[in-house]
Amino acid sequence: MRMFSVSHKTVFVVDHCPYMTESSRQQIECDMLTKSRAQGVIPLAPVSKSLWTCAVECSMEYCRILYDIYPTRKLVNYIVSDSEFHILNSWRQEDQSVQELMTALAAVGPPNPREDPECCSILHGLVAAVESLCKITEYQHEARTALVDLADRVANRGRIICLTNAKSDTHVRMLEDCVLETIQEQNKLAAGSDRLMPIQQCELVLVHIYPQGDDTLVSDRPKKEISSVLSSEVHSVRAGRHLASKLNVLVQQHFDLASTTITNIPMKEEQHANTSANYDVELLHHRDAHMEFIKSGDLHMAGSTSRDSGLKETVTLKWCTPRTNSVELHYCTGAYRISPVEVNSRPSSCLTNFLLNDMSLDAAGRPPIERAKAQLERHTRYWPMIISQTTIFNMQAVVPLANLIVKDTMTEDDVLTCQKTVYNLVDMERKNDPLPISTVGSRGKGPKRDEQYRIMWNELETLVKTHVGTSERHQQVLECIIACRSKPPEEEERKKRGRKREDKEDKTEKNGKELEEKMWTQDSDRLKGAMEREKEDQSESEVIKDSPDSPEPFNKKPRLATEEIQPLEKSKGPVSLFSLWTNRITQANSRKHQEFAGRINSVNNKAELYQHLKDENGLDVHENGKATR
Q1: Which family does it belong to (predicted)?
Q2: CATH code assigned to 1-26+47-255
């Protein structure tokens, strides 16, 4: 069962009677910002706000803090009371904004001092506030619809904050009685209606506003139970900064908020650009943000930084310049919405802009986790798994484009930077600069220079095409790459001449190889003929055998060159080019010296030693005529 607390509905009732036009007597110097004043110029007189202006400004600050920390499910209904009541907005969620309320207040305007005071009363607004509390909000309707059988158990509670100038304590008690009677009447009507809900609990907060310097006619009173459905408390506050501090304390009490003061924030002064000063900024947030400090015992409370608000305590948080060292980073225990106490001060504005620029929700309203996933997807949409298989991610010249093309939105300066990067690549190609092409797995020196740039341009175009659907400026980067890849006619002619020259060199090299093969063929034919003739001479010498004692002919040709070379007919398979070359070298070297006599008379490259010392029976003959084995 869904229960709704008192803070679910808050009704502001602001007095719009003529006596609210009285000055708060808190003077504001309008001439204090003038650095130099010309002679004879009368300075501007100080001004003071009216009670009505103070009430509107403080109530708007209350609503601003509420909307900052609770953008939903905490609703405000604003009512202005004079001779009648004026409801400025409804309980619908689309009407819950400071801009909506400020626009309605501007239409109402300040109180009319000439209006009859007897016809004006804050009671009109209090009665309308009770009637408004009986109306069902969207969230209550959803809860009743979901719990059809237990619809009567959905709670209806609310709070009424009345800003007025009461006459006395008796006047205050009269206002409380009026509210109680109205609640009882409206509960009877709501009991028999499907569009209304009876009020189960109502808190009435009466804030008596009086000018500074006057004595208050109303006494402060803590919360008091008037009946089972109504409780009341009274605050007598001077107008001006005192009223602002009081409502700041009340918004913390009503919505269970806590305060944290960021101290020692460095900030350069506009008047002295070379110097800097430290400032403090007080932030409001839900009290649960301090629970971890309370559990660990590290909670250090400090006095309130706001003037005249001694009831409030704040936790001091020292500013630390963000660093990337993991040792200085702390674990996150929770995320809570914050709201600055003094939203218009310069330190608060600077801190707010810093946080919004670095850690805000984007324009689409996506939560941080979804934006982080989208960013990771864009950065890994084109991602080489192996760094040696990419060219552009190894090039320093492509880094500016690679870093900008993955952005969700690109500015005109980003597009110009990407185009400049493309032009630099074109200039590199014109100068024929080398590229970091990987040669792993390739034979030789890798692809030629033209092929390297073709690979680079293809990879770069693929990278940009993966992001071309992000925005129109991403499309402009792709169009620049496509335009730069189109070579001019003279460049194509130069490429064509280069290809012709390469073809001519290849043809010359081919003809040289054919000529060399032809010469090898001729040499091999001549060598084969010489080997055949040598074979014929050898066969003739074997047929005609001389006596062992006859000397060899002087002009007999050496047989080493031909006998060591195996006949081509005896070789199995085709003769290799290496064999032909070896035979040719051996034959040429054999003609340069006289062959060894033993090798010339050898048979099958084997020379027999001591041939003449053996007789016919294989016995050796010595000088004494004795034969020995």
Answers
A1: Belongs to the Integrator subunit 13 family.
A2: 3.40.50.410
